[in-house]
Amino acid sequence: MFDKFIKPQSNISPELANFLKQEEKFFFGALKRSKNTPMEQREAWRKETVYERRLRVSREVFEMMGGVVAYGPLKDLRLSDDAWWGAPDKASMLLGLYERELLDVLVSEPLTKKPNFIDIGAADGYYGIGLVKSGFYKHSYCFEISEKGQKTIKKNADLNAVSERVHVFGAADETLAKKLSQDVIDNSVVLVDIEGGEFEVLNEEFLRTFQHAYILIEIHNWVDEFEEKYFKLLLMASRYFLIDAVQPAVRDLTQFTQLNDFTDDNRYLICSEGRPNVMRFLKLIPKVQ
Length: 289
Hints:
Layout: H1 14-36, H2 39-46, H3 50-65, H4 90-94, H5 100-106, E1 116-120, H6 126-133, E2 139-143, H7 147-159, E3 166-169, H8 182-186, E4 188-192, H9 198-201, H10 204-209, E5 214-219, H11 226-237, E6 241-246, H12 264-269, E7 280-286
Parallel strand pairs: 1-2, 1-4, 2-3, 4-5
Antiparallel strand pairs: 5-7, 6-7
């Protein structure tokens, strides 16, 4: 980049030469993108909806990283290209940013002393596969109502060579506990993320059956009669568990130098999970270990 400006006889010190090389590397991506992006394309991008832009940025990050998580606890997890759920979140998953506050809890002790992970609302298997592949849990039990989602989990498990340790089931209905042995249940960490269905699944019988497990819940506050349902859930849960709120985590983008040529909007949009408000994650800690 600077060679054309340096005269052959220029007296450039080694320190300055090294700094010039550093700056060439820093600006390389941005200059390349600028040269290769016509104004018509830039104008088209400006007309995108937020959702469309999140999809486009996630696609670009996916291609750039080859679909492999490069940062965070689930590093080296391979994501398939045909996700049916959470396609706009692929970029944050690949960078280890997705639901970071929840992930930090899932990979911490004493939870990881339990050998089993039960994922209720497993989607594409990001947690159910990633936590097993990364060695935090020996087995996962993924409950997903969508048949396409079930097929995607199995495909992703094959892709990551953990099929024998990732067990896939259908909907998390009233028969959920009957599909697992009590020993598996007692020695499990459970994640519940079912878009408001938590108020039906987490009834008195469920909480009593799972009273020796750690349970993490994403609370969805847009369901009808939310206040009453949430109050009842907290009251029931308090009989068997200590209840704690998971605090939001900071997303640090400075470590991702491969994003230097992204616009500020696109770079920080990767941190967005498209939620209507700050979500509440609860951690239920068993009173009886």
